Amino acid sequence: MTVWRWRFFLPIFMAMLVLLSCEHRADAHGYSATFSTLELYQSKTELTYALDELSVIELVGGDTNQDKTLDSEEFAAVDQKLLAVLQSSIDVKINGESAGWAHVESLAMHPKKAVLKASFPAVAASQQIQLSDQLYLNDKASNYVNLLTVYNGTQRSTAALAGSNRTWSLNMTADDFAGLQPGDASPQQQLPDETTSSSATDGWLSFFLLGMNHILSGYDHLLFLFSLLVARQTFKQYAATITAFTIAHCITLALTVTGVIHVSSLFVEPAIALSICYVALDNLIRKKVSYRWVLTFVFGLIHGMGFADILTEMNIPKSNLAVDLISFNVGIETVQVVIVALVLPALALLYRWKHSRQVAVACSAAALMLGGLWLVERVVSNL
Questions:
Q1: What's the rounded Cα separation, in Å, for the pair 230 and 364?
Q2: CB 217 within 8 A of CB 331
Q3: Which residues contact 162 (CB under 8 A, 6 or more apart)?
Q4: pTM value?
Q5: Model confidence over 43-89: pLDDT tens digits?
Q6: How far is CA 189 from the centre of its chain?
Q7: How many Cβ atoms are within 10 Å of 268's Cβ, its own excluded?
Q8: What are the C-alpha distances in Å from 78 to residues 56, 75, 261?
Q9: Is the separation of the CB atoms in 36 and 148 below 8 Å?
Q10: pLDDT tens for residues 326-363?
């Protein structure tokens, strides 16, 4: 009995040492997200650029009391520094020439985001407008994305600027220019759900890449997937588990993005962390896995809501919604299939080793502790 206890608890102890010896910030999402709106008028071009609060702190500091938020006084101390960073990173060009930043209307702190509003010269017929975003371009540790919505008269388009694909452009035709508002009314107020053609960065590919980047930076989703796989199972069990997870998160991803259901992130994010803890604990307690696909389906419904968070912030036109949603989901599934294809053969080799159970216990213990850290952090942050 004593030997068995040592074999069981030693991997857990080693996993604790590894976690505690590393300076780890319990943050499951490494995403820095911007939600931008570009509105085209006959007399001007308006840009609204909203950057999440944590990214503001990361870029220019200002969080003097270390509470991961910026009050009005803290933001006032760094707003000009932030403006300089944004002006050096964002470039609007008309016919290949930079439009400059002569008309900055405002830069203010809103709940959980800083919002910059600026105006630029109008885009005439037969001219091209281009927006490029170089924020975080050389920061390999950041997964930055600019979710851009463009209003062009009675048309609307969306694009996800991420990775090395950071430029959006549009060639203004004479008909498009004739359909623009003069500049005293927002095109957002009278838009049918139509889309405009723009560069290759706008469309299914940008959302496919966004889906890939989203799951690769969603460490909680990856840890949940690994926790599902690390317990020894038959091929049939693995297939059932992965299929259940895929179907479940596809269902709630679609329902959430289309607005059929809405569950607050105050519940979803802690529930995702809890799902990691539950599966990891199940791995520790039970040597044999049974009916895991049922549990995985339930937790997959929750993870699908988590996948949807970044898309729900975008004003995606209905005519684009199906393609963008499918592309985003295919990006997620592509990464998931690759991960499973790499992990399962490695686990098959591991299971031939006589100490494979101890390794699985150590991995599950580490997942349990990390999931527990995320759970506590998310619950406390919601208080």
A1: 8
A2: no
A3: 143, 144, 145, 146, 206, 209, 210, 213
A4: 0.69
A5: 999 999 999 888 898 899 988 888 878 888 999 999 999 999 999 99
A6: 28
A7: 19
A8: 9, 5, 38
A9: yes
A10: 988 999 999 999 999 999 998 888 888 888 788 888 99
